[in-house]
Amino acid sequence: MKRKLAMLLLVCMLVGVFATPASVFAEDIQEPGDIAKVLIYTEGGVNIPSDKSKVNCEIIIVDEAGGEYETISAENCTVNVRGNSTSSAYKKPYNIKFESKTDVLGMGKNKKWSLLANCYDKTLIRNAVVMDFAKELGVPYTPDYRFVDVYVNDELHGSYLLIDSIEVGETRVDIDLDNNEYLLELDWNPEDSDCYYFYSFGGGLKFAINEPEIDELTREQQKYVEDLIADAEDALLYGDFEEIQKYFDIESMAKFYLTLEFFRNIDVATSSTRFHIKGGKIYGGPVWDFDLSSGNYNVDYYGAGTLEQRFHATKMKWFGELVKFDEFQSIVNEYFLEMQDTIVNLYADNLIGVNKIDTMIETYGASFDRNHNEAGWAPNVVHHSSMQLERHPDETYEENVEFYRNWLKERNEWLVEEWGLKSFIEVDSESGLIQDGFFIKGIQADTTVSDLLGKFSSDDVYIEYNGETLAPDDIVPNGSIATVGGASYLLEVEGSDVMLGDINNDGAINQYDYILVKRHYFETRYLTDDEMTRADVNVDGAINQYDYILIKRHYFGTYVIGGND
Known about the structure:
The protein has about 575 residues and is an alpha+beta fold. It has helices at about 1-20, 20-30, 125-135, 220-240, 240-245, 250-260, 300, 315-320, 325-340, 340-345, 355-375, 395-420, 450-455, 510-520, 530-535, 545-555, and strands spanning about 35-40, 55-60, 70-80, 95-105, 110-115, 145-150, 155-165, 180-185, 195-200, 205-210, 275-280, 280-285, 435, 440-445, 460-465, 470, 480-485, 485-495. Strands 1-2-3-4-5-7-6 form a 7-stranded mixed β-barrel.
């Protein structure tokens, strides 16, 4: 009898063990991890259909471990597949909608949110990089975003970008729909039933009025938009620049054009290119959908010209006309030069800090790894059944990232040359100086500004220190900045007293030192003997994880080198 009871107990235990993994797993994924999570539970556990129809669901959003936002648990929500070409890819993008306005991870209260799958972009970061760039540049109403892991019915679907949906609202596109203000989209895709469509530029452009939606749009409003755009296009074709400024907000159009042109968005003349009308003028933006950009397009689908360095945003006819005016191109050039340090920092370490690509991968790399290895979206596979829009992917994630990094560098240098600008310093090979990316070393003590400028092959270089331009007879201080046009270079003068932690010897322990010790620690760039002396913070004769940790803590303000026992 006891044996039977024991066997029955064992069976019950085994049944319990094998019956509960889903619930245990569900509890695990609802705990904070290394990245925020969006958990979608469809009604009845049904699959989300590809036809874009909405499914009722519960949504749980969990901030990352140590994050500042409380978990959201909301019922009576909906989810549906979104997008045009991306909706037919295997890794689906989604729209989610809450029953009431909800503040999601500090991005403001709204009902609608989008989950971009970045399926075509093997690096997973192109959209995020552009959003950060456009926000810093000042493109109007650039969407806010968060990287998240998405689970549907407890199944990992991969790494996504949770992002503001493009719609009118106080924290979205803040325009007044009751005062002749409108959200427009250039869109040649099949027509949506809730939008009013019209053609302009002799039928060469097809616009949708996204908001107000068609059932709230009067014929008078339709005519107002069509007449305004017709007058604006007449000014582009037949007017002068002063006339054009009556219809276009030139600042936003220049910023929008620069973003589209630099990153070479392939869809600029066909879809996902948005404008808005505000105060009787046409504004550029917001930006959207850059997974097919920065060289990431299939030559067999788009044509051989897509892989060559050439202008592309000018295919959108408004921009093609605007750049014919020197006044407009001058404004674009000015913004381009102002953004050079930011642009360089996309692909290379510089005065701003560790480059954007490496920073994003370090921050979200674990999520990207799960996307490739757990969710099954391998970086060397085209995850689409009927067509390939993206470039033929490289074998590894790292190779796809390096393609992106090199493309950005080459694009920047090409535009600098094409627009006749000066932005990069060349050191004379006989100067004795060492140029390490955007750091110039080997400058001797008591070198004057004029002497240093004579060691550069580039003209029009100027030297700054603490925000002031130095005179030709001034001595070049440690940590001064050399600039030509746009990009900045940090100057290191030899012979200064050793300050532990001050690896680049600029008189301070800051982000530049953190960059150098980080690169040495991860074996991407080795320190010189002098740099090793200054990097050995704990004076143990070696540069190791302890020095890296101490300098990192100093950089983030949790430790003070030379000020702690």
